[in-house]
Amino acid sequence: MHQRQKPSAPEHTSDPAADGGALPMSHNDSRSLLNFSQLMLSAGQIKPSPALKHSKITYFEVEILDVQSKKQICIVDKVPPASTVLDVKHKFHKACPQWYPSRVGLQLERNGPFLKDSINIQSLAVSSIITLYFTDLGQQVGWTTFFLTEYTGPLLIYLLFYIRLSTIYDQVESRKNFRHPVVHLACFCHCLHYIRHLLETLFVHKFSEGHTPLKNMIKGCAFYWGFTSWIAYYINHPWYTPPSFGHRQVSYAALAFLAGSWISFTVMTQTLPETDMERRHMILFFKSSSLVVGIFAFLMVIQMSLWAQKKHKLYLKRFYPEVRRKAAMIPIIF
Fold it and tell me: For residue range 107-117, what is the model confidence (pLDDT) as tens digits?
């Protein structure tokens, strides 16, 4: 007899989720969780990028004193290290509007040279406070204005004498006397000379400094305008007489005008004021000589030589510092 066996009860598998227990975790899941936790912890310690950092800038204070009395005029504060002397002048102008930048001269020492506008202010600093001395340079004009005014005057003045205005010459004498061809040639050469200077001023020359005192322009204009009036009066006078050696002298001098302008102009015109007591009581008329233009040429040689020596030293220092030779104004002679 077979004994019936009781069916075995099904095995009961417990569900951890249902029982509130923890779910079993694989190795990959635990590794991902670890990486995520590390990321969250490091998030609170993220440092700002270097671009967001603010570097500490050291500003300078520029104390400006009067060069004569040593009294303080003002203090220009918060001057960045990259600023130039020109920037300081602009800030100084805001504090003292009566002195515009081109009128301001700044010196590091009372007897020292004026500082150039391009000098970096940091190169002058020994501490955070920089002391500079102020000098009022007076009214200033630009170099372009200076030369245009200086050269335009002679050009127009000579033409006024050339057309023989009634306010300058006697009209009866002007109509009666014939003009020698050298008078027309002299006008052409004189105008050509100053037109060339005007064009060079506008399109060729580059000026190192921006401004010059107004009094220098007044002196220059008095020199050029005054001598032009003197020369033009004699050459265009109805009683003007041509050079002693005639056409040959005029032709050679006109060709040489291209190389040594005023010396050849002197030879070409031969102008000298004299008086003829018998014909015109103390009225000027002219005979062959070259005193008038000669004086002007002599003074111009002196002035030009001084300018040339100064510019020559500047060019050698800037472009050829190792060269110490001198240049000749007039070869062999000077």
Answer: 999 999 999 99
